[in-house]
Amino acid sequence: MATARRTYWAIDHTYGAGMGDENGHFIGTLAAFSSPRLRREWVANGQPYITNPHYRAALSASRPEIRLALRNADATGWRPWIGGDLPA
Questions:
Q1: Model pTM score
Q2: Would you state the torsion angle of the CA atoms of residues 12, 14, 16, 21, taken in this order, to the nearest 10 degrees?
Q3: In degrees to the nearest 10, what's the CA dihedral of 44, 46, 48, 52?
């Protein structure tokens, strides 16, 4: 039996980390990584201040944004994340 590989998630906040949609979810682009090291490097290359556009942060797989993206991907085949080292 094959074991599922863990995915490490991050987000690039389009308008800064303080902005959210009407449901309270982050506005930004998700990125999927195969290792925490690759995610850390990607996050470190973002903006340094949380209020700046394109501030990057690591996300837990239990975040609603991740669960919604995965649910939509399963239903439609569309992958709403870009970036990272895993295929979109």
A1: 0.76
A2: -110
A3: -160
Q: Could you tell me if 50 and 28 are in contact, meaning their C-beta atoms sit under 8 angstroms apart?
A: no
Hey, how many other C-beta atoms are within 10 angstroms of the C-beta on 32?
A: 23
- Residue type for 32, please? A
Amino acid at 72: N
Phi, psi of 7 (to 5 degrees): -110, 135
User: Distances in Å between the alpha carbon of 14 and those of 27, 28, 57?
Assistant: 6, 5, 12
Give, in degrees to the nearest 5, the angle at Cα 34 between 31 and 37: 90
Per-residue pLDDT tens digits for 4-55: 678 899 989 989 988 888 877 778 888 888 899 999 999 999 999 999 999 9
Q: What is the 3-state secondary structure (H, E, C) of 26-44?
A: ECEEEEEECCHHHHHHHHH
